[in-house]
C-alpha cells in the first residue's frame, strides 16, 4: 500500500514522505493513529504545511539547545567525595552528582544528557561529554577531590599550630 506520512515514524520515514508499506501495517497502525494518509493532492498540501511548521519548530529547538550547550561547554566543576589513602572512593561519582555540581553553578542539565561509560571510582580529573540531542554535544571537566573534614591534619608544608618560642 502506498501512503504519505503525516508524522515522523521511526525506521520508516519523515513527515511528507510517500512510502510503500504492507496493507496490514497501514490499516492497523499508521492510518488509525493518524501517522499516515492517502497521498492525494489535498493531503499533500496539508502535509507540506505541517512539514514546514515542523521544520521551523525543529530549527528553533536546535538553536535553544545550541545556546544551552555553549553555556556549559568548557566549564569545570569540583565534586568532593570520601576516599581512602590510595584515592579510591568509598562510593562512586555518577551522572546525578555531576548534574548536582553543575546546578550549584547555575548550569541546569538533565541526568540523561551526561554520557559516562561507568561511574568514577577514584580521585582524578575527568573529561565528561554532555549530549543534548540533534548531534549537539558539550565537554566539561570534572574534578573529583577528597572531602576535607574538620579536625583532619593540615596539608603538608602548613603547620597545624604556630610554633611556640
Short description:
The protein has 165 residues and is an alpha+beta fold.
Characterization of this structure:
The chain is an alpha+beta fold and 165 residues long. It folds into 2 domains: 2-57, Ribosomal Protein L9, domain 1 (3-Layer(aba) Sandwich), CATH 3.40.5.10; 71-146, Roll (Ribosomal Protein L9, domain 2), CATH 3.10.430. Helices cover 30% and strands 28% of the residues. The chain has 3 helices and 9 strands; from the N terminus they run ββαβαββαββββ. It has helices at residues 23-30, 41-72, 95-104, and strands at residues 2-5, 18-20, 36-37, 76-81, 88-93, 114-115, 120-122, 124-133, 136-146. Strands 4-9-8-6 form a 4-stranded mixed beta sheet. Strands 2-1-3 form a 3-stranded antiparallel beta sheet, with helices on one face. A two-stranded antiparallel sheet has the order 5-7. The radius of gyration is 27 Å and the shape is elongated.
Amino acid at each position: 500500500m502506498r501512503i504519505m506520512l503525516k508524522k515522523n515514524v521511526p525506521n520508516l520515514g519523515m513527515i511528507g514522505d510517500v512510502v510503500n508499506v504492507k496493507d496490514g501495517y497501514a490499516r492497523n497502525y499508521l492510518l488509525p493513529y493518524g501517522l499516515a494518509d492517502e497521498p492525494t493532492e489535498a493531503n499533500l498540501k496539508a502535509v507540506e504545511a505541517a512539514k514546514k511548521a515542523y521544520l521551523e519548530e525543529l530549527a528553533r529547538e536546535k538553536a535553544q539547545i545550541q545556546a544551552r550547550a555553549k553555556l556549559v561547554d568548557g566549564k569545570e566543576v569540583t565534586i568532593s567525595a570520601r576516599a581512602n589513602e590510595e584515592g579510591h572512593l568509598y562510593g562512586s561519582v555518577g551522572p546525578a552528582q555531576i548534574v548536582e555540581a553543575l546546578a550549584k553553578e547555575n548550569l541546569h542539565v538533565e541526568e540523561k544528557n551526561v554520557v559516562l561509560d561507568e561511574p568514577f571510582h577514584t580521585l582524578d580529573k575527568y573529561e565528561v561529554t554532555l549530549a543534548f540531542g540533534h548531534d549537539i554535544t558539550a565537554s566539561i571537566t570534572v574534578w573529583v577531590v577528597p572531602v576535607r573534614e574538620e579536625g583532619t591534619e593540615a596539608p603538608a608544608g602548613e603547620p597545624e599550630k604556630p610554633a611556640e618560642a
